TrEMBL record:
The lineage of its organism: Eukaryota, Viridiplantae, Streptophyta, Embryophyta, Tracheophyta. InterPro entries: Aspartic_peptidase_A1 (IPR001461), PEPTIDASE_A1 (IPR033121), Peptidase_aspartic_dom_sf (IPR021109), TAXi_C (IPR032799), TAXi_N (IPR032861), Xylanase_inhibitor_I-like (IPR033868). One of its GO terms (molecular function) is aspartic-type endopeptidase activity. SUPFAM superfamilies: Acid proteases (SSF50630). GO terms for cellular component: extracellular region. Residues 43-387 form the Peptidase A1 domain. One of its GO terms (biological process) is proteolysis. Belongs to the peptidase A1 family. Its main location: secreted. This is Peptidase A1 domain-containing protein. It is found in: Secreted, Extracellular space. The keyword Secreted applies.
Length: 406
């Protein structure tokens, strides 16, 4: 494939450690399903929580700092414990204040607890929430199938009021933060079971078939028996100094500029000068291939007649987009499957949007560009592994075999 468009990025991310009582069953990895919500385009996962255990649906937030759930509605659990202020769990959460609640005691409302600030990045709302612990349980995995349930008896999370769910997919009870804090899901699971502080996401492009998130190391096997972890290319992740330096972060960078990966943006958002240069380059490469431009369909600015574009295994035959990471030999290739959005039967649009002239982050790589790509975040080694599209390797992110082994 001759013509490619390049987008330059650099990389960074973080680490940490945490210790907890050791459970008797020690899985090497865990697995949870992720579905794509058709109306919001959010990615929704499920874990089991509380006593008795109930499945809880949560919007995946790659940069989120912890798990938060609505405790005001249907939170029933005999194992709920508020986290007492000035306890080790409060410091782990970076929660310094002590709070009281002037109402009837219930989950989310207790005296002498420490509080955090659960937030909803969709509505850009944050509020106060009681830090708490309860049982959380997800399936272990050998990399091929789900195995027996692995339980963390005192999983730290935050309660939130019901209004924080506004704008989230229907049926969800909160958000699953996969960020780099010590109480985000990856670190709590890694420390509870003493496995590597790594996790991998593989988002499905379909709203009917589940993608998958793995906590811990590979193999990450997708049907027909393809270990997607073998397809990873790694790029080091640097800590983002609060400066103008370009940096690749999972979730929110501290400084302005830079690049981040976000599961709560449906499409990649580019700062307007980058957006213009990039779409112009794409339009001219497309024209050189006799691809016919048609009127734009919001929120996209570059749309084409689908009749002028052939289909291939890796999506519509359009110029490839190369995200050049660490250096020119570490390249994440975005093929038509992840660049072109079918807005109707006749029109395909370049699935990137203009973020205006002064966004906090210059490049936010969104969900559509991540689908059917395996991304592994190695928090201990500070590196990101990425596969580029798995479609070229005859599999997809919805090919994990969720049937338990007998
Ligand atoms: C917290 O303490 C205050 C003062 O003692 C009391 O009025 C209130 O009911 C208590 N709240 C809870 C949730 O126990
Ligand atoms: C998770 O483990 C439980 C208990 O072993 C099992 O019943 C359930 O089917 C597993 N879940 C999946 C999705 O396989
Ligand atoms: C584009 O169309 C022109 C005129 O029909 C033709 O000569 C040229 O070979 C085509 N280019 C490609 C890349 O298909
Ligand atoms: C590019 O970066 C990779 C990963 O750090 C490194 O292994 C490789 O030597 C670098 N190549 C060049 C040409 O600098
Ligand atoms: C999925 O895993 C189950 C349990 O190991 C196995 O019986 C089944 O054949 C697998 N499905 C496919 C399509 O390979």
């Amino acid at each position: 494939m001759a013509s490619t468009i390049q987008l330059l990025c650099f990389s960074s991310l973080l680490f940490f450690s945490l210790s907890h009582a050791q459970p008797s069953f020690r899985p090497h990895a865990l697995v949870i399903p992720v579905s794509k919500d058709a109306s919001t385009l959010q990615y929704v996962t499920r874990i089991n929580q509380r006593t008795p255990l109930v499945p809880v649906s949560l919007v995946v937030h790659l940069g989120g700092r912890f798990l938060w759930v609505d405790c005001d509605n249907n939170y029933v659990s005999s194992s709920y414990r508020p986290v007492r202020c000035r306890s080790a769990q409060c410091s782990l959460a970076g929660a310094n204040g002590c709070g009281d609640c002037f109402s009837t005691p219930r989950p989310g409302c207790n005296n002498n607890t420490c509080g955090v600030s659960p937030d909803n990045p969709i509505t850009r709302t944050a509020t106060g929430g009681e830090l708490a612990e309860d049982v959380a349980s997800v399936n272990s995995t050998n990399g091929f199938n789900p195995g027996q349930l692995a339980t963390v008896s005192r999983f730290i999370f935050s309660c939130a009021p019901t209004f924080l769910l506004e704008g989230l997919a229907s049926g969800v009870a909160g958000m699953a933060g996969l960020g780099r804090t010590r109480i985000a899901l990856p670190s709590q699971f890694a420390s509870a079971f003493s496995f590597h502080r790594k996790f991998a996401i593989c988002l499905s492009s379909s709203t009917r078939f589940d993608g998958v998130i793995f906590f811990g190391d590979g193999p990450y096997v997708l049907l027909p028996n393809i270990d997607a972890s073998q397809s990873l290319i790694y790029t080091p992740l640097f800590i983002n100094p609060v400066s103008t330096a370009s940096a690749f972060t999972q979730g929110e960078p501290e400084g302005n500029g830079g690049t981040k990966i976000s599961t709560v943006n449906p499409y990649t958002v580019l700062e307007s000068s980058i957006y213009s240069a990039f779409t112009e380059a794409f339009i001219s490469e497309a024209a050189a291939r006799n691809i016919t431009r048609v009127a734009s369909v919001a929120p996209f600015g570059a749309c084409f007649s689908s009749r002028s574009i052939f289909g291939t295994r890796v999506g519509p035959a359009v110029p490839y987009i190369d995200l050049v990471l660490q250096n020119e030999s570490v390249v994440w290739t975005i093929t038509g499957s992840n660049s072109m959005v079918e807005v109707n039967d006749d029109v395909l649009c370049l699935g990137f949007v203009n973020g205006g002239s002064n966004p906090r982050t210059s490049i936010v790589i969104g969900g559509y560009q991540l689908e059917n790509n395996l991304l592994q975040f190695d928090l201990a080694a500070s590196r990101l592994g990425f596969s580029s599209t798995l479609l070229g390797r005859q599999t997809t992110c919805s090919n994990f075999n969720f049937t338990s082994s007998p």
